């Protein structure tokens, strides 16, 4: 029994040793495996994907033949070609202005009067003086006076007659009378008692039967290409009319008056040639004048024309490349340009947008 007990004890110890050895072996393997995982791994050499470069976007147009026209455009006003300014030759004080702008008047109508102050009193006194001189001269003749005495009475009468005539002229000069029938196209804003300067227009009468169009330019250079007798397209209240240039800055006569001559460099006068045209003073009109026109020529957008250091050229496509070609421009408008030399139909011009 003791041997059997010892034998079992020995067997138990052997099993324990075996289990410990197995556990140690497993632990060693685990340690080795964990150590391997800590070693640096070799990096994979992954190439980036190939990206095809985007094609350059080129804004180009095909060269073609077309028509091109350079026009002058502007706004004109219907005005009378016969305008009569009315003014006083001497300064004075206004008694009454009887018209205003836009009024219709007839020849002979009273337009304005000057204040003559005590004119009526002076006129009545002169009439009495004249009557006395007439009586004295008549008495001298009846009494048989002659020589110097009679002549002095004749002089007194003539003097009073001259004074009466002068007062009558003053009275007539104080009135502004319409010399023609028409419309008041200008009237100064004056009230009774206001002072007036001599030779300063108070009103202007315009003859509505003699009308034309007047264009006033800010800069006379814009009218330099316009010549007399050029055809004008006119639009008034959406109605079309034809006209012609009757005076441009290039043919305006020199007057010797600096202000008038300077003003004429900016004025364009146009006559309506359409028969039966009904025009109204002061109306606005759109005008167009053809200055140059070419048909069946090479025309490109203005954005395709380039300049650099005095050189004028365009860029054209030659396959995938661009090349520069010197060109000679012709008529140029705000949007297009004629190419006189350097381009042929079918070429592709690159726009400079």
UniProtKB/TrEMBL annotation:
One of its GO terms (molecular function) is efflux transmembrane transporter activity. It comes from the Bacteria. PANTHER family: MULTIDRUG RESISTANCE PROTEIN MDTA, SLR1207 PROTEIN. One of its GO terms (cellular component) is efflux pump complex. Gene3D superfamilies: 2.40.420.20, 2.40.50.100. Keywords: Coiled coil, Transport. This is Efflux RND transporter periplasmic adaptor subunit. It is found in: Cell envelope. Belongs to the membrane fusion protein (MFP) (TC 8.A.1) family. Residues 91-189 form the Multidrug resistance protein MdtA-like barrel-sandwich hybrid domain. Residues 296-351 form the Multidrug resistance protein MdtA-like C-terminal permuted SH3 domain. The lineage of its organism: Bacteria, Bacillati, Bacillota, Bacilli, Bacillales. Residues 150-177 form a coiled coil.
């Amino acid at each position: 029994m003791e041997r059997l007990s010892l034998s079992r004890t020995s067997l138990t110890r052997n099993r324990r040793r075996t289990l410990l050895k197995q556990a140690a072996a497993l632990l060693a393997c685990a340690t080795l495996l964990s150590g391997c995982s800590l070693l640096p791994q070799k990096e994979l050499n992954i190439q980036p994907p190939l990206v095809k470069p985007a094609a350059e976007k080129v804004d180009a147009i095909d060269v073609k033949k077309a028509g091109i026209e350079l026009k002058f455009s502007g706004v004109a006003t219907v005005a009378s070609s016969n305008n009569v300014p009315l003014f006083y030759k001497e300064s004075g004080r206004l008694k009454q202005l009887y018209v205003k702008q836009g009024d219709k008047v007839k020849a002979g109508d009273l337009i304005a009067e000057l204040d003559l102050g005590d004119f009526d009193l002076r006129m009545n006194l002169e009439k009495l003086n004249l009557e006395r001189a007439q009586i004295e001269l008549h008495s001298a003749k009846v009494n048989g006076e002659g020589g110097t005495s009679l002549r002095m009475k004749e002089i007194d009468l003539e003097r009073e007659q001259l004074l009466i005539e002068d007062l009558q002229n003053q009275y007539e000069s104080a009135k502004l009378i319409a010399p023609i029938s028409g419309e008041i196209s200008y009237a100064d804003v004056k009230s009774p008692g206001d002072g007036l300067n001599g030779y300063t227009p108070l009103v202007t009468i315009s003859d509505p039967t003699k009308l034309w169009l007047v264009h006033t330019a800010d800069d006379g250079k814009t009218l330099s290409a316009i010549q007399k007798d050029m055809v004008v397209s006119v639009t008034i209240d959406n109605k079309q009319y034809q006209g012609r240039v009757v005076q441009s800055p290039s043919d305006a006569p020199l007057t010797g008056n600096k202000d008038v001559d300077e003003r004429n460099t900016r004025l364009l006068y146009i006559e309506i040639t359409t028969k039966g045209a009904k025009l109204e003073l002061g109306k606005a009109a759109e005008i167009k004048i053809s200055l140059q026109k070419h048909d069946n020529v090479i025309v490109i957008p203005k954005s395709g024309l380039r300049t650099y250091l005095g050189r004028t050229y365009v860029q054209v496509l030659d396959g995938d490349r661009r090349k520069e070609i010197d060109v000679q421009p012709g008529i140029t408008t705000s949007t297009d340009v004629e190419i006189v030399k350097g381009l042929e139909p079918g070429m592709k011009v690159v726009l400079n947008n």
